Amino acid sequence: MLPGVGVFGTGQTVRSLVPLLQEEGFPVQAVWGRTQEEAECLAIELNIPFSTSQSDDVLLRQEVHLVCILTPPPHTRQIAVKALGIGKNVISEQAATLTDACMMVTAAQYYPQLMSIMNNALRFLPAFVLMKRLLVEGYCGTLQVCEARVYGGSLLSQSYGWAWEELMGGGGLHTVGSCIIDLLSYLTGKRAERVHGMLRTFVRHGATGSGIRSVTADDYACFQLLVAGGVVCNVTLNFNLPGADLHEVMLVGSSGRLVARSTELYGQRNGMKGEELLLSDSNSGAGPSVTGLKAMVTQLRLSFQAQEDRRSWARQPVAMASTFEDGLYVQTVVDAIKRSNRTGEWESVDVRTEDVDPNQNHRTALN
């Protein structure tokens, strides 16, 4: 039986996710927005029967068994921890701080029978699923280098909001870089041990009428990860390119390479004259995020549909999903990159679930 879904958030991801859930047969029962007007408008647009600006009104509804948290990062931890505490399965975006991520891991460990996964749909993108399988099968030989590039237009909202503020989880590193860091860990099966990074904020002021508020969130990030086993990862994120739409991940090994461009996968073994197309785009250019989201929702249906209880789920269909522990690792890497930007040095990645200084998330100085 498919569970009733409660959705937190009113952004573009919600507008993509809700129709996909409904297509797969999930009854989306309630939506939360920061204001009642926001929530009502989205509920009408997406045919959701209940809307509210009070989080408890969604969490306490008996027909809601699965909670999707797609809110601004500062709200994420509170909703996720409360949802798990009252017996709801949870799919969540990245939290705002390392302290928040630790609290989410603690809650997930306390309720291991409940679903607690991160909303990184790139893991489910068919191109990356095939890339991981071919890597394991030896297509590239011994993995040596990972390269990732994501280019696009501005991530800023028109008016002042969390996306402007580094401390609130804004910026390319947190919103997009987090997904790439997690994806590289998934593809390689290994985690970063040391990192080096540089962050910049080139657009310091928003649209006309934004007042005295200035932007502190990064719109350019370049960082390197030294992964266990000697693999080198290099990631470049640039959100100062309106009209550009580049999403590319390349794995280079001793005997070949694999390249995922948007939703397509290419490969070239040493000795071949050119690349071969290993997986074509069958989704009419929907892009990696939406295509991955669609694949993730399909796996969610498989996880829930055979269960007699709407709260029960099978682990195998969503085994590739990112866990809250993975989310903590990602947040640790993000914080280490911010430290490296301040110090100019390589920084160690030390994942801990205890003794995190709640004041460690002080503002990064961006040049």
From TrEMBL:
<comment type="function">
    <text>Promotes matrix assembly.</text>
</comment>
<dbReference type="GO" id="GO:0000166">
    <property type="term" value="F:nucleotide binding"/>
</dbReference>
<dbReference type="InterPro" id="IPR000683">
    <property type="entry name" value="Gfo/Idh/MocA-like_OxRdtase_N"/>
</dbReference>
<feature type="domain" description="Gfo/Idh/MocA-like oxidoreductase N-terminal">
    <location>
        <begin position="5"/>
        <end position="109"/>
    </location>
</feature>
<dbReference type="Pfam" id="PF22725">
    <property type="entry name" value="GFO_IDH_MocA_C3"/>
</dbReference>
<dbReference type="InterPro" id="IPR055170">
    <property type="entry name" value="GFO_IDH_MocA-like_dom"/>
</dbReference>
<feature type="compositionally biased region" description="Basic and acidic residues">
    <location>
        <begin position="344"/>
        <end position="355"/>
    </location>
</feature>
<keyword id="KW-0560">Oxidoreductase</keyword>
<keyword id="KW-0732">Signal</keyword>
<protein>
    <recommendedName>
        <fullName>Glucose-fructose oxidoreductase domain-containing protein 2</fullName>
    </recommendedName>
</protein>
<comment type="similarity">
    <text>Belongs to the Gfo/Idh/MocA family.</text>
</comment>
<dbReference type="InterPro" id="IPR036291">
    <property type="entry name" value="NAD(P)-bd_dom_sf"/>
</dbReference>
<dbReference type="Pfam" id="PF01408">
    <property type="entry name" value="GFO_IDH_MocA"/>
</dbReference>
<dbReference type="GO" id="GO:0016491">
    <property type="term" value="F:oxidoreductase activity"/>
</dbReference>
<feature type="region of interest" description="Disordered">
    <location>
        <begin position="344"/>
        <end position="367"/>
    </location>
</feature>
<keyword id="KW-0964">Secreted</keyword>
<keyword id="KW-0272">Extracellular matrix</keyword>
<dbReference type="InterPro" id="IPR050463">
    <property type="entry name" value="Gfo/Idh/MocA_oxidrdct_glycsds"/>
</dbReference>
<feature type="domain" description="GFO/IDH/MocA-like oxidoreductase">
    <location>
        <begin position="129"/>
        <end position="258"/>
    </location>
</feature>
<feature type="compositionally biased region" description="Polar residues">
    <location>
        <begin position="358"/>
        <end position="367"/>
    </location>
</feature>
